Structures are given as structure tokens and as C-alpha cells.
Amino acid sequence: MKKQTIATAVIFLGVGFLAGYITDAQLNWNHQKATQTAMEASAGGATSAPAGGAMPSGLPEGHPPVDSAALIKQMEDVAAQNPKDPEVRLRLANFLYDQKQYSQSIEWYQRALEIDPKNVNARTDLGTAYFYLGRPQDALEQYRQSLEMDPKHEPTLLNSIVVNLEGTHDLAAAQRAWDRLHKLNPNQPALASLKEKLDSARTGGAALPR
Fold this sequence. Notes:
The chain is mainly α and 210 residues long. The chain is built from eight helices and two strands.
């Protein structure tokens, strides 16, 4: 996930929501290399594409329709031709993530991290993909590694709050992550809503199962 800008995303998930920093990257179209970079929305999380090869959200205005399967194959070919380039693998991981193909995106995030293991953003996106597959513990492990490399990484701290709250229902861990983020950036927009959910869960008004 080495992307150009980072944006806060609050993704509603039925009984709760995933508040995650899911970053923005413009999908660049190149006729010669057929390499694209997916864009994630600045609010609402990863973009999705309608079935049938319709244009994914986030394409530049006026961009011609894209066949997703063909695009993925092209990007895989580019990755094979550039075995030491983590960015190519990351672009493919991001595109698959945008298509909600989380299992496949995990594979390509892992391949990117094999080459560039210190990419905190990519590791955080990998963790969020695990979360969407119902694997909160795996998500938290990726966040733990991210925070070891960058203890002040706000996207990881924010995701840690939500995955502990909504995934593992560990309110103590969620509160610790909340406290860390609040100390780092008390003006973070999602903190107030997350505090409300923590307080509600603790008082039993919206008790979360364990």
C-alpha cells in the first residue's frame, strides 16, 4: 500500500463499523505497460467495482471501461517481469482489495512485503484485508508489527481500536489503543465516535459478545 495520500475511512459493518485509514492512490492507465494503480475512497473505505468488468470506482474521469480480469492478468504479467519491484505487487494488491477480492489481495500484499518488509502502510492494509475475511487476530498481528516499526502510525492505531472493539471484542485492548491515539492526536475525527461505542459496550447498553 505505498500510496500517495492517506485518508480516514469509516466503514459501517452492520452492528458496527471498521474505522480505518484506507489510503488514496490514483489508478494510472498506461497503454504500453497496462499497469494500473487503484484508488480508495477518502471516505467509506475501499472502492468496489460492479460485476461484469465495469469500470471500477476511482478511475479518472473519461477513462475507458476496464475488464477487471484482463487487468489483473496484465498486472500479474508486469509483476512477473519485475521480480524485485514491490510497487508493482502493491498496485495489484490494492486493485484486488478494491475489488473486494481480499484473499487474493492478501497474497499480493505478502509478496510486496517480502521485498519491502518495512512498508508500514502495506502491512496495515494487509491486516485490514484479514479483518474483512473474519480473521481479527491475524489483523491485529499485522498491526502489532506495523506499530513496532512506527509507534505513531495513526492508521494502524485507529484500525487497532476498531478490530479490538468489533472483531475480538477486547474492550481493554481497544481502550489502550484509543488512549494511544488520543495522546498522539486528540483531534483525530474518529475518536469521539469510537469513544461512544466503547462507553456503550462497557455499560452494557450495546454489550458485545465474547
